[in-house]
Amino acid sequence: MFVSRFSRPALKRPLQLLSQSSFTQARCSFSTATSSQSTLKAFGTPAAAIALILGGGGYFLYANPIHANMVDEGLHPAAYPWSHKGPLSSFDHASIRRGYQVYREVCSACHSLEFVAWRNLVGVSHTLDEVKAMAEEVEYTDGPNDQGEMYQRPGKPSDYFPKPYPNEEAARAGNGGALPPDLSLMIKARHGGADYVFALLTGYVDPPAGVEIREGLNYNPYFPGAAIAMARLLYDGLVEYEDGTPATTSQMAKDVTTFLSWAAEPEHDDRKKMGAKAVVILSILTLLSVWIKKNRWAVLKSRKIVYAPPRR
């Protein structure tokens, strides 16, 4: 009865509309799936696309050496192949000795090494007799004596390196108002570490056109702001190395940077040596644990315990 009340064209029209709407939805879903597949093919996965965007932004902000804040932050130094950079590499102790000579003859006039004692050089770059002789060349204030007075005495290996100025005010007065920083932890205190210090020591150039440097300052693109109070100090042949190494500007900068790297981390070599021993021992213990797990515990792990009630 229900079918007889409607004609065949009237019945076909809703069916046609239903089929057309279904086809349209299917086509839209197919196009959406196709675009999604093309996007996934381009980037691999959504996570990969996000990682690509974040990686590009991170490179622009941190790895890219040239960006908008280059003047404020200073030019980023190149990554130099330091001999102590590898996981199993140690300091070049000959370079440490030469670097100490550069520090003593050039840098110590303004910069201090507050946390380095004479005895720290023993077994690293100098012998005990050499350290005693160098320490005795410096007069230290000690006391009080039996009369309650301070007195001067020769230095001992337990004394720390002398400071060039008695206080900060004297240091500022002798350097045009600028305070020369202590170099004990300079490698760790600056972004870029040894690369930054080496680039700073060798990066003095004339200011480019249009850049004005205030009187008493020097242009160095690696220093934040590009204007530094410290003038260029390293020139070819400035010091005469004991081992006959040519004292070029880059050689002296490399040696004093290596010395400051050791001063900032004197336990560097011992730490790597201890780490190598720990890796070997832990590897042996890991293999031994795997062997015990598979052979000794196999019986206990694979046995089946069945409860057998007593017979009555």
Keywords:
312 residues; mainly alpha; two-stranded antiparallel ribbon; 4% strand; disordered N terminus
Uncertain stretches: 1-43
Q: Which structural class do you get from the secondary structure elements?
A: mainly alpha
Measured as a percent range, the helix fraction is: 40-55%
Strand segment tally? 4
Q: How many helices does DSSP assign?
A: 11
Strand line-up in the sheet with most strands: 1-2
* Cα separation of the termini: 79 Å
Rounded to the nearest angstrom, the radius of gyration is 36 Å
Oligomer: single chain
User: How are helices and strands ordered from N to C?
Assistant: HHHHHEEHHHEEHHH
Mean pLDDT: 83
The biggest sheet, with number of strands, parallel, antiparallel or mixed sense and barrel status, is:
2 strands, antiparallel
Strand content: under 5%
Shape field: extended
